[in-house]
Amino acid sequence: MKNKLPGKASRKYPVQVQLLLGVAVMAIVAALAIRSDMAETQHILATTASYIKGQCNYYARIELAAETKSLMRIVESSKQIAHQIEEKDGCIDPAALEDYARNSYVTGVVLLGADGTILSQYHERGQMPEPISEALKSAALLDTVNHPEKRYAARFRCTDRSEIDLAAIACMGEAGIVVAYYHTPLEYIESFNLSIASLLSGYNMGDNGTIAISDGEKIVASNDDTLVGQSTNDVPILRKIKQTGAENKMTNAYRSSNPLSRYFGLMERGRDYYVYTFLPERGVFQSTPRALLYTLIAYVAVLLCINRIRWRAAQRAQAEFAERLQHKNQQLSVAVQEADRANAAKTSFLSRMSHDIRTPLNGIIGLLEIDAAHPDDRELVDSNREKMRVSANHLLSLLNDVLQMSKLESGEIVLGHEPIDLNRLSAEVMTIISQRAAESGITLENDRHSEPVSTPWVYGSPLHLRQIFLNIYTNCIKYNKLGGSITTLFQCVEKDEKTVTYRWTISDTGIGMSEEFLGRIFDPFTQEKTDARSIYQGTGLGMAIVRGLVEQMHGSIEVGSTLGVGSTFTITIPFEIAESVEVKPARRNDAGQADIHGLCLMLAEDNDLNAEIARMLLEDAGVIVTVVGDGQQAVSLFREEPAGTFDVILMDIMMPVMDGLTATKTIRALDRPDARTIPIIAMTANAFEEDAKKCLAAGMNAHLAKPLDIGKLIATIAQYKTKEK
Questions:
Q1: What residues does 624 pair with on adjacent strands?
Q2: Predicted pLDDT of residue 336
Q3: Count of alpha carbons within 13 Å of 537, Cβ hemisphere only?
Q4: CB of 223 within 8 A of CB of 210?
Q5: Using an 8 Å Cβ cutoff, are 710 and 685 in contact?
Q6: Angle 211-213-215 (CA atoms, 0-180°, nearest 5)?
Q7: CA dihedral for 30, 32, 33, 39, sign (positive or negative)
């Protein structure tokens, strides 16, 4: 007996598994593709039906308005005829009636007695139309003789589809009622009136499907002429849609003329019409065959690759191959997930920020090009420099807002807990805001019902509290009207031994916001209008940041607004009561200005351009500057030079070799007299309060955020200078 080769008897099983897997994959893809096609068809049909419904409603309103206007005209004509009869002492012979009719532009006039008998009549066509005869018997029409102030008006449609507008009013004298009418021929109606069928002009069955409009049972218009005039009950797909009784719910049915062909459609119910849209089955599942074909090709290709790999893998040890394959698959899966997460985050961020970052950069680059083309035009160059400064400040504000929003969302914002004088903080905020308001022609007002600050000293984060009110007041100014006002109401809501809760109600007379926008005002990157960022120069992050900060303070913010009237912001924040603190005034020299002339500074900065800018500005202020490129060079230079060589060290934080925090700690640990006393000032792009705390904890004296504010830098250096002029 021959021995069987290992695995030979079972070779057919992988083939069966591959076939079953292929069937499963095809089934899944088919299900997904069918679902996608159905959803797309639902969207297309619903969009088309909704638009046609809106047009039908608009058509109905136009028809109603036209009818109302026509009836008002015939009423005025009736009044004019009654007035003419009274002026001619009640002359009502047919010749006079003809004259009245022509002067009043009506087709016919009928004069009735108080009991409804016809006293006299004139008809342009010689005889009274049938609808007029019926109308003269109306009790509502005859009742006008008993109520002179009453007017009767109605429209009648004749059998030839022409229209008659009729009006009746009471008349003094022998003629008790004046009845006037105007006959509109069918030719005129068809020439000047809209047609429901015209609404479907441009819709072809291939792209938009079949559209049918019915007035209930009868189809009055369709882009398929064979359906016009039929009953909706005679069309299977329409009958099936009606049976569902639901709007925007797609259903399917077979067409009686072709039982093998299905149609999918839905219905929208308008004011006077029903709008049906449907597509044949071949128009619905357009991508499904392609998806199945592509899946089959891909699956076959994958099978070929797998079988090739299996054939080559059989040459190696099975255990080693399985171990390596598993390890590689795990690495690949992790890498793909990480790449997907990174790409998703990057795409989301770039898509939101591309416009806002490019706008000020485009302005700066364009102005630089203009300056390069006109170097001798001093006035133009100076003007462009100011514009570039505005754009650069806007870009800086954008970056700060984005970074702060990111920290709020990740929970990295750390609020300060220090004594605050609310009176002083309020004065600082109003000092900044009052200037901006004056420049914009806005008046700041204090509500007469505002309460005094009963407990001004509280614990909190002054930086973030100030930012909350600056953001809100800035919005009130930015979206206000010229000559508008901003009113502030301050109230103490609750107070006990340890806490006090204050409420600020800030109202403006600006452009206001819609109710729809109020529901998403706190969403990041959101503004009322699509062009708002271009008009108002904002990031759409201000209110999101405000809410994040207020909620971290365990407070609340509410916004109310009326479009075109203004907005009201209500901020409620609880505070822990603090002991009052004596505030020392800032030191200044005899001239009242900061003076750093003659000081020797070390500048640790790895960016050559930043170093060159800082060095030139400081040297213009009379300072001797020594520049080093990283923290290690700063430590080495300070260690090598004699004590007292440098008066101040300006330290960047993020540098190669050794960062600024490590360099500061190293300098403070040196065994020399000035190591612990020399002022070290952080000058870094890490601009948040927690970054400042890290700098102070490392041994620095102060923290200044980039971009460089030379005035603030000089003032800070002056506070810590150790060498007089």
A1: 600
A2: 85
A3: 14
A4: yes
A5: no
A6: 165
A7: positive
- Residues 182-211 as b/e (b if ≥16 CB within 10 A, e otherwise) read bbbeeeeeeeeeeebeebbeebeeeebbbb
Q: Give the C-alpha distances (Å, rounded to integers) separating 223 from 196, 208, 429, 526.
A: 11, 10, 65, 42
Query: What is the pLDDT at residue 315?
Result: 76
Q: What pLDDT score was predicted for residue 502?
A: 93
Compute mean pLDDT per 10 residues along the chain, 725 residues long, and list them: 45 73 87 85 83 79 83 89 80 82 88 84 86 85 84 86 88 76 81 61 72 83 82 83 79 66 83 83 81 86 84 77 85 81 51 62 79 85 81 69 63 76 88 84 89 89 85 88 91 90 93 83 66 49 82 91 91 89 52 74 90 88 92 93 91 92 93 90 78 88 83 85 48
Contact between 634 and 651 under an 8 Å Cβ cutoff? The reply is yes
Q: Hey, what are 516's tokens?
A: 């729809």
Per DSSP, the chain holds a count of helices (H) and strands (E) of: 21, 22
- Give CA angle at 603 (601, 604), nearest 5°: 145
Scanning 374-421, the segments in alpha helix (DSSP H) are 378-410
pLDDT at 196: 66
pTM: 0.41
Q: Is 480 left (phi over 0), alpha (psi -120 to 50) or beta?
A: beta
The pLDDT score that the predictor gives to residue 6 is 45
Distance separating alpha carbons of residues 206 and 280, to the nearest angstrom: 9
Question: What distance in Å separates the CA atoms of residue 139 and residue 143, rounded to the nearest whole number?
Answer: 6
Q: Is 601 exposed, middle or buried (0-12, 13-18, 19+ CB in 10 A)?
A: buried
* Cα→Cα distances 48→56, 58, 211, 217, 392, Å: 12, 15, 9, 21, 47
In single-letter form, the type of residue at position 173 comes to G
- Give the span between the Cα atoms of 77 and 89, in whole angstroms: 19
Contacts 24+ apart (CB under 8 A), 399-403: 400/687, 401/539, 401/541, 401/542, 401/545, 402/353, 402/539, 402/541, 403/687, 403/688
- Residue written as token pair 């598994």: 17
Cis amide bond preceding 707, omega within 30: yes
**Vertex 562 angle, CA 559 and 568, to 5°:** 35
Report the C-alpha gap between 719 and 713 in whole angstroms: 10
| Cα 109 off chain centre by | 60
Measured distance CA(472)–CA(505) in Å, rounded: 11
Q: 464 is written with which tokens? A: 């973030």
- Which H/E stretch holds residue 24? helix 12-87
Q: What is the distance between the alpha carbons of residues 252 and 238, in angstroms, rounded to a whole number?
A: 9
The residue whose two tokens read 């961020």 is 349
Eight-state DSSP code of residue 180: E
User: Encoding tokens for residue 686?
Assistant: 């890490």
| Pair type for strands 485-495 and 443-446 | parallel
* Token pair listed for 111: 């004069």
Cβ proximity of 262 and 254 under 8 Å = yes
Q: Compute the C-alpha angle 340/346/348, nearest 5°.
A: 100
* 171 and 84 Cβ atoms separated by less than 8 Å: no
Contacts of residue 32, defined as CB under 8 A and 6 or more positions apart, other chains included, come to 291
